[in-house]
Amino acid sequence: METKQTGSKGAEALLHLSPGSSISVAYHPVFGTHDNIILLELDEKLLPDVLNERVTVRGQPDEDAVLCTPSKTYAMKFVGTSNSVLLVPPENQSKLYQNLQESDGNHDNEKVVAPVIEVVPGYMELVEVAPRLDKLKSLLLENPYKLEEYDAGDFEENEESRSGLYNWNDLIDNIQASDEELRSGLQSLSAVEINGYWRLVHESYMNMILEMLLRNSVLNDWPLDALNEDEVVNMLETDGFPGVLARHCLHVYGVKVDDSMHSCILKLDKRRVCIHFAIEILRGGKRKLESFIDEWKQKTPDGMEPTFDLLEGEVLTEKLGIETWVSAFSVSSLPSTPAERFSILFRERPKWEWKDLQPYIRDLKVPGLSAESLLLKYTRRTQPSSDTEPVFSAR
Do 86 and 167 fall within a single domain? Predict the structure, then answer.
């Protein structure tokens, strides 16, 4: 036999309802549509962030909203349900209904204990997604830092001078990514904070600073695998470069080898430096492979022997007659969404051998999808025989 509870208790009565028991429900006096209430389904691992108010909803009015924890991004998708989902407020918000019942003289044993304020049609579901960082690069490219800007002096704080500039708060308002993912995106773009605004430094200015750094290393007999940060920055400031950009350049092309209390020691990264000079050479267009290699070797510093494998994911080669030509095609210039990425790749080349394709897709990260799944979804694989390389074309 079912046991019946009495007394207006609100949602707490439902939480402690034992198996086989029943409870009566009725309309709350404020029953209706409550636009300020949305049900959200959460995985247990997200509860600490939500309960401790470490989540934010991000997105512009014309974008689908995402929910961000400190380290991850989740798409918010409405899921409808055919069942009747009754929304019952907590006990402290059901007092009004209880008082009304008592004033009506209703003292029957079977009292309404779960007053319903709304019947909801569904709930919001969270699905982990990759951060939407493509917009970050386009925003920072609106106003990259150039030599002319430094020559003109620090910009004044007015609305016109801030056009195309974004501080941290501007970025979190515009970019659908968690704080951790946004910082990682800024680092991968080699962005630097200047006067409170996050900037990209124009490639010609970065080239100028790097070449001056290399020239000073020769003049001062600095070993490229043991550069003293303070000494390098002070010398570059003497040459007329702002300290923040000198330090930024050193960290873009170098890696720390020692970070003691007194000084930071870095070494120039061979791959980063060699890629920089290769792209500088190819900025004017494709080149014959032999002449490109010759000029590349001349530009790179002594001790950094450039090899073509360093340019994986940065350049493409093609045969035109008996000549091999090389052109710039950097993975960093490609969109991060798989559909757009593969569309551009197959516009560039209708067919790709795996050794050429792999460098351009290995950075794609889609939660819940492996690299193999992405290939199955967006490409068609052909392999004439077991001893030949597979070829991928658009699906």
Answer: no
Question: What is the spatial distance between Cα 337 and Cα 289, in angstroms, rounded to a whole number?
Answer: 32
Give CA–CA dist 216/226, Å, rounded.
14
Task: Examine the domain organization and report whether 23 and 119 are in the same domain.
Answer: yes
Q: Distance of CA 251 to CAs 246, 264, 265, 277, Å?
A: 9, 11, 11, 17
- Cα separation of 48 and 58, whole Å? 19
Biggest CA–CA distance in the chain, Å, is 100
CA distance 299 to 142: 30
pLDDT for 371 equals 86
Task: Tally the domains of the chain.
Answer: 4
Cα–Cα distance between 80 and 123 in angstroms, integer?
7
Nearest in space to 117 (alpha carbons), one of 36, 16, 17: 36
Same domain, 177 and 89: no
195 plus 209 within the same structural domain: no
Contact 275, 315 (CB under 8 A): no
The secondary element (H helix, E strand) that includes residue 78 is strand 73-87
Instruction: Summarize pLDDT for 170-181 with one digit per residue, the tens.
Output: 999 999 999 999
Tokens linked to 168: 């941290």
Q: Yes or no: say if 22 and 113 are a contact pair by the CB < 8 Å rule.
A: no
What are the pLDDT digits (tens) for 273-316?
Answer: 999 999 999 998 999 999 999 999 999 998 888 999 999 999 99
Q: What would the pLDDT profile of 98-118 be if each residue is shown by its tens digit?
A: 554 454 445 445 554 678 878
Which residue from 16, 336, 35, 317 is spatially nearest to 181, judged by alpha carbons?
336
Q: What pairs with residue 394 in β-bridges?
A: 379
CB < 8 Å & 24+ apart, contacts of 100-107: 100/29, 101/8
From residue 332, give the alpha-carbon distance in Å to each of 44, 265, 335: 35, 28, 8
Classify residue 118: in a domain, yes or no. yes
Length of the chain: 395
Q: Which residue among 144, 177, 200 closes a domain?
A: 200
Q: To which residue do tokens 């007053």 refer? A: 115
CA distance 69 to 107: 49
Domain containing 192 equals 133-154+162-200
- Residue that has been written with the tokens 């409870």 in this structure: 23
> Angle, to 10 degrees, between the axis of helix 229-238 and the axis of helix 243-253?
130
CA 83 to chain centre: 37
Q: Tell whether 220 is covered by a domain.
A: yes
